[in-house]
Amino acid sequence: MHCNIKVNINSKYTYINAIIDTGNFLREPITKTPVIVVEKDVLINIVPDYILNNLNEIIDGKDFDLEDYSSKIRIIPFTSLGKENGILLGLKADNVEIDLEENTMNITDVIIGIYNGHLSKNGKYKALIGLDLLETSDIDNKLAVKI
Question: If we measure between CA atoms, which residue out of 33, 3, 31 comes closest to residue 17?
């Protein structure tokens, strides 16, 4: 199932076509905050180049002046088919609006995992949303508010 999302980071936003991935249960390991995986290329207008161009170096702990983004940076380990010990750089979003048919959900407790590649072969979607994020959002108002 496809949906459109609006990602807001540091008061900058972008619209992304996403797919709801029933196998995506990715969460930041300390806070258990849900993660939406997003292709790096669609974030160029809202995330500075020095972050997008140095994902691996930031993950490796190299010394970077991350300016207004240092409190938003998260390191997210993951396992997937073909990648047993992967790591994504994540950014805490201000909020994400998810348009699902007749409902819009405003999720305030979410991390954007930056994927350095393509999620679909045909480019129809650029982000993966876990179904558990949407299910939790319906139950727990601290995560989402229907608009």
Answer: 3
Cβ–Cβ under 8 Å, residues 76 and 113: yes
pTM: 0.89
DSSP tag of 54: T
Report the number of distinct structural domains present in the chain: 1
pLDDT tens digits for the chain (147 residues)? 899 999 999 999 999 999 999 888 899 999 999 999 999 999 999 999 999 999 999 999 888 788 889 899 999 998 876 677 889 999 999 999 999 888 899 999 999 999 999 999 999 999 999 987 877 554 444 444 444
Are 37 and 27 in contact by the 8 Å Cβ rule? The answer is no
Token pair recorded at residue 135? 């299910």
